[in-house]
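Tutorial sheet, problem 5. The two components below are modelled jointly, 578 residues in total.
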Amino acid sequence: MASDTATEKWSSRFGVILAVAGSAVGLGNFLRFPGLAAQYGSGAFMVAYFISLFLIGIPICWAEWTLGRYAGQKGFHSSPGIFHVLIRRQAGKYIGVLGVIIPVVIYMYYVYIEAWCLGYFYYFLTGQLDLGQDVAAYGDFWARFVGANENGLVLGHGQNQVIVFLIIVFALNFIIIYQGIVRGIEFFCKYAMPALVVLALITLARVLTLGTPDPLKPDQNILNGLGYMWNPGDIAASLSNPQLWLAAAGQIFFSLSVGFGVIITYASYLTNEDDVALSGLAASSANEFCEVGLGGMITVPAAFVFLGAAGIVGQGTFGLGFKVLPLVFSKIPVLPWLFGGIFFFLLFLAAITSSLSMLQPGIAFLEEGLGLGRKQSVAILGLLTAIGSLFVVYFSKDLKALDTLDFWVGTFLIFVMGTIIIVIFGWILGTERGWIEAHRGAEMKIPGVFKWIIQYVSPIYLLGIFVLWVLFNVFGWDPSTGEFKPTSYILDLVGPMPDPVARLSVLFILLVMGFFLILIANAGKRWNKIAPPSG
Amino acid sequence: MIFSVGFVTVLFLWCIFKVVFGKPPLEHLHGLEDIDTKDEDVE
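Model answer (structure tokens):
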């Protein structure tokens, strides 16, 4: 048997839209996006952001939905299987390894961050996050909690509460994923996503009614907070900054979950006549609403009201989320513990709906590639991801393992995967055929200009962004001087003083990739009988 | 702010409207009759 499990299908259109939206809406919507928008001057950033949305985000999203459904009709649900049937060459299934290792490796560290969110929710409700008025105290708390001061800290004696939260979220993820597509992912997202939006609206209402909490600092009011976040500044000058375009395109990629291998897997569980055009746009728009409409209105304006601009600048995603915002919520005049708890539970829901989606591509591959049942697949993936998560947790000093995995897999490989998908849609399946496929059962007509965008503009735009990314983040290009100074990610690997944890992290990625490539070679023997390659 | 937040909100609401009031989806059509047997490797 190729598989001893019946092929599942989504039970409703709302279910699949909420599942894909749940995959897309994550920590980046509420922490990363507002920080980037404020850092680059929101007006110019939003111009680059919306251009990236229309030139790469939505086109790749439609391509993933269409390709996934197309391959799903031929009985393939895992990325290697999907690429096997799309590319029809021996190499196809091996390229598809990216669609398995990207979500699996990201899950290994993402679930750790998810545990922080659950932990902070608990600490707010129990009053343990009332640490006074100094942001440094919150920074120390976070560093101790995640073990950022020393490797192995949270696995040894002493500060190890984060392990309890990690075990809880790890178990929760696998209990849900074990239930399957309909009874697990779809059921959970049907409740979690509306709950997330309601919690975000409650938090937003509280933030917008903050007024001027400190009469001694009249400039720090909510209107100025919104102005700090959204006032456009010098748009023309800012748009000439290539880093801004890179940040905007990267945010679109990360936020919409395109290039993760998740959407293409989810879409493979649709039937041939299920709509992909409107569903894809609906899931993307839900993500954009949560990111721009909610995330952009909550975190930075709230932080500005209590801390001013100086308290926000240069904090980064983790700094904003786990140092600044706990202080901000603890300063809210009425029921600070409640609103802090609500916010971190909102982050937890956003994270778990995303982490769930990262498991399904791996499960799908083990089931259809090796003919395993769900119980066996869940057990194998559980063991593999547990090893990876323990690796991340153990090498926690400065979060080096997490950062290295995120750089090479969560950023670099996602660009590669996104480019492959758009090239397959535009040039291998063919735009004409792809267009027909995309409109099968469609409830909206995709504007014709997107046919041209998908074939020409998206690949060129992606290539341009990718080249910029390599120049800045790998070779350390300084456009003002024209000099190249390799970044720490390169120096950690091949510099005069290499970092052993960074090297181990890259070795770990290669081992995971090798493991799945061996399994794919084995699976290919089975798949060749179903859909033989043409070359 | 008005343009950015307004645009994503209108797009989101339009999509919800289309999904809810558009062509009735074929709900619950995916039962066990859709089982896809790929069992072609019987030795």
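Marking note: Residues 2 and 8 of chain B are 10 Å apart (CA to CA). Full credit if you identified this.
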